[in-house]
Design brief:
With 457 residues, this protein is an alpha/beta fold. Among the domains are: 71 residues, no CATH class; 188 residues, no CATH class. Helices cover 50% and strands 8% of the residues. It has 22 helices and nine strands. Helix 9 packs antiparallel against helix 19 and helix 11 packs antiparallel against helix 14. The longest helix is centred in the N-terminal third of the chain and has 17 residues. It is globular.
């Protein structure tokens, strides 16, 4: 019996209209990698949608195989990247980056592709560590969506928050090198550097994942009591000067403890989780749920007694149950996916939370926006395999790039930091100041020099 290719094609195109739709993901979940490749070869499903799906599922071998046999949109250049030999020169990867820029510009992809497909392309490019081209696609998506976003909506708040930190020079760079159109540019310029810190915080708070999203039916009486306590708890950092020490293992500038009211860290779980300034007592620690989900209630209680305050974000009902009888913990008012398909990294969210609570300023140390890859031995990963080093551990490039591409767009994080930095609300050590001072394009190029997923270096 002959298959009606046109009917299959039309059905799959409808599924793939949004490359990240639930229907398409369900379809691909029950489809073998070989079948995916066949569908892509016959153009029954867009190969970028499949590549995006494989990246999200961490199916590295299948993703590489698809890239090697796929054809069309960006895949040829990604195949050239996979063909790079061990010991390749930085210039070799740069040539592919330039070729991607030329492809995007010459084909007019930023104008032709839908916002959904632009995001899908951006995620695939980010998975392969081509962060500059990924950002061009992301900005084009934001510009197209910005034309119709209603003031006060999630979409408008997210675009406003991200673009408020982008500089005009970076946008002009994407016009020149990636063919960003005048209409999209004008929309982006309408948002660029227009947000105050208060407006930024208000918009992100409005977009935040509510504590009400917890599955309350899974809570016992103790869990519901903790829920009510957390729902009503507020904290005030009015006019406090905060020293935030991140998890990047490296030498930092000397700081004077007397200059700060509070010392804060990310994911504090005792001395082994500290990257620097271990002589300083930690007053506040900020946690995403995975930093605590493996601990018992007794262990969490022990940590809480060593701190003045624990702030948690995106907490699950199973973790919440462990906080019974702990009074010094609070829920982040800027939690979850507050930007377009992106949530703030822990460091950035902590800074935003401190400022939203009234902090006068935040000094940032040992926070390198993923340009340094080494974490302390006792710092908790999100259930990923670790590569252990003499002074800590690191993650595989594939994992870092996937996390950045799928959930934590680097350009979005950077631009929000820029808004806060330009306002004078945040400053930091020499490394942080260099990252902020050199601008977005410099930062994206540095990321591309740092990560090389799928290649044996």
């Amino acid at each position: 019996m002959l298959l009606n290719i046109n009917r299959i094609q039309n059905k799959l195109f409808r599924l793939a209209k949004n490359p990240r739709s639930i229907l398409l993901n369900r379809f691909l979940t029950v489809t073998s990698p070989q079948a995916m490749t066949t569908l892509a070869r016959y153009k029954l499903v867009n190969p970028i949608a499949i590549a995006d799906h494989l990246s999200g599922k961490r199916m590295w071998q299948e993703l590489k195989e698809l890239t090697k046999i796929g054809d069309g949109l960006i895949l040829n250049n990604l195949r050239a990247y996979l063909d790079l030999q061990p010991g390749f020169l930085a210039e070799d990867k740069q040539k592919i980056s330039y070729a991607l820029a030329n492809e995007v510009k010459s084909l007019g992809l930023l104008q032709k592709l839908s916002p959904e497909m632009l995001l899908s392309v951006a995620r695939v490019l980010g998975q392969f560590s081509f962060f500059e081209a990924a950002t061009a696609c992301r900005f084009a998506c934001l510009g197209k969506n910005g034309l119709s976003a209603k003031s006060g909506s999630f979409l408008h708040n997210a675009i406003n928050a991200e673009l408020s930190g982008v500089d005009v020079e970076s946008l002009q760079y994407f016009v020149e090198h990636y063919g960003l159109s005048e209409s999209i540019l004008n929309c982006l310029l309408g948002f660029a550097q227009k947000n105050t810190v208060d407006e930024l915080l208000k918009g992100l708070k409005s977009n935040s994942k509510s504590l009400q999203d917890l599955k309350q039916d899974e809570l016992d009486s103790g869990g519901r009591r903790v829920f009510e306590q957390l729902r009503l708890a507020k904290f005030d950092l009015a006019m406090k000067k905060v020293l935030l020490i991140g998890p990047s293992v490296r030498q930092s500038d000397t700081v004077n403890r007397a200059d700060f009211d509070l010392v804060a860290r990310i994911g504090y779980r005792g001395a082994a989780s500290v990257a620097a300034f271990d002589e300083l007592k930690t007053d506040i620690s900020f946690y995403k749920d995975h930093k605590l989900d493996d601990l018992s209630s007794i262990e969490i209680s022990s940590i809480s007694r060593s701190l003045d305050m624990m702030i948690v974000s995106g907490i699950s009902s199973s973790t919440l149950k462990k906080f019974d009888d702990i009074s010094n913990f609070f829920y982040s008012p800027i939690s979850g996916t507050t930007l377009i398909t992106t949530e703030c990294n822990a460091g950035l969210e902590a800074v935003l939370v401190f400022l939203e609570a009234g902090a006068d300023s935040v000094y940032i140390a040992n926070t390198d926006l993923f340009l340094n890859r080494t974490y302390p031995q006792g710092y908790k990963t999100n259930h990923y395999n670790q590569i252990f080093l003499e002074n800590g551990w690191m993650l595989e490039d594939e994992i870092i790039c996937r996390s950045s591409a799928q959930h934590h767009a680097p350009s979005a994080q950077y631009c929000v930091y820029q808004t806060l930095w330009r306002s004078g609300k945040i400053h930091g050590d020499t490394v942080f100041e260099e990252i902020m001072d050199n601008g977005l394009i410099w930062y994206l190029k540095r990321l591309e020099e740092t990560y090389h997923p799928f290649l044996a270096i």
